[in-house]
Amino acid sequence: MSYSVGQVAGFAGVTVRTLHHYDEIGLLRPGARSAAGHRRYDDADLDRLQRILFYRELGFPLEEVAVLLDDPDIDPQAHLRRQHGLLTDRIERLEKMAAAVERAMEARKMGINLTPEEKFEVFGDFDPDDYQEEVEQRWGSTEAYKESQRRTASYTKEDWKRIQEEADELGNRFLALMAAGTPPESEAAMDLAEEHRQGICRNHYECGHELHACLGRMYVSDHRFTENIDKAGPGLAAYLRDAILANAERHG
Amino acid sequence: MSYSVGQVAGFAGVTVRTLHHYDEIGLLRPGARSAAGHRRYDDADLDRLQRILFYRELGFPLEEVAVLLDDPDIDPQAHLRRQHGLLTDRIERLEKMAAAVERAMEARKMGINLTPEEKFEVFGDFDPDDYQEEVEQRWGSTEAYKESQRRTASYTKEDWKRIQEEADELGNRFLALMAAGTPPESEAAMDLAEEHRQGICRNHYECGHELHACLGRMYVSDHRFTENIDKAGPGLAAYLRDAILANAERHG
DNA sequence: GGTGCGTCCTCACGTCGCGTGAGGTGCAAG
DNA sequence: CTTGCACCTCACGCGACGTGAGGACGCACC
């Protein structure tokens, strides 16, 4: 079972040119070529194309789509789950917009006028804004940051929730150690720090021990991190840093 | 109350360059310029920008957005209604995709494999396909067709439903005349034909009497039209054509 | 009174995801 | 045998901006 460009274009609802383009940029190379040099797509290619079109539909640039599809730790099921998550996120966003439009209709009936900021609330408040800017200033050119951007772009709400839960749980285990009076240089604390590092690797970016140590120091030196972490329990940031540094030294 | 590019870009969540671009192409000209040549946006400009971003978000090309926004028979309320309609359509589509993904997950669990066509059903069966192609062949280069494409692009499901109802109602009134034995050249039939023509003007494209006459002839000469029309009542297509031709002659 | 700095301006070229010919090949049917 | 169709490879075009380059304006602080 193999198909020509025309056939594939037919049931995928794209043009032949699009398939040529995907071949050119290496996003979808047909499994084979006929003797005459004609592209021949097999079933696996169709599956891949389906995924490509799905992510494209949701606005991902083709380059990112390629990264997603070639990521070895995303199997077919994981893709379906992720797709479902992305869809529900998107639906939620549109429903909020619809609700905002309804409110606007109400407001107009009553002759209310909105402030400039309010006028754009339709699009949802994605406003880490000035903070985001500083992040770009400090980290924009590093590899780790770029990788994080790439990976988190396709995270759904459920993904974020899971990551948050993981982090909370880890925090609680650190707090338990602190409460028990276990020193941050102890085996147990260092093991937790190691788990912390691996969590970052899984969810955000490749984080070696050295980078992890930098991160730990910043948890204390940058008060915004400190405050945020200490919300779970005062002193946690400092304890975390010490455990991280001890763990880094152990592996260095 | 007037705002600089930077401010507007700020609360609209777009770049300054985007605003420059919209100015260049005439989509959003700021209400005024300062002495130094700086763009100054007023409240009306903000409203317009909000609409622009809304339609852009739903994937309209900027040129079409301009047409929509400058259409004099779309007042603010109408825009809100249309926006709401477009949103619900979109949500419906995404929900269907989500459902399809769920089915795919089920299918995968049971190890079923899908045929190539089935694989792409996720994207909803928009398959006037070969028919669509012929339409393009025959009408692709005419002004009326382009106008129709432009206008129907922003129609929501509700719009289509309304248009369908209008058409059905008109059909029934024609059938009543036929049943009563009224000739298609009668005043009553010609008036209905005129109403039919004006319906096309409102909902699809500028349709003069001459074009209308062509259309009428085609209703009989192209059997696909004939069959479709005669589903409402046998002989309707021919009767419709005769009434249209009589009406066209009356106005010619 | 200079001297940064931040925001604004206008070119003008670069990018992404294709669309759209132009010109040529391989092969089946009339 | 040639006509037609589906395929091929360049290669330029386009929409919606991104991204500097190079310069003007305004204000704040030394």
UniProtKB/TrEMBL annotation, chains A, B:
Residues 1-71 form the HTH merR-type domain. This is MerR family transcriptional regulator. InterPro entries: DNA-bd_dom_put_sf, MerR-type_HTH_dom, MerR_fam, TipA-like_antibiotic-bd, TipAS_dom. Coiled coil: none annotated. It comes from the Bacteria. Keywords: Activator, DNA-binding, Transcription, Transcription regulation. The keyword DNA-binding applies. It holds the Pfam family TipAS. GO terms for molecular function: DNA binding; DNA-binding transcription factor activity. It comes from Streptomyces malaysiensis subsp. samsunensis.
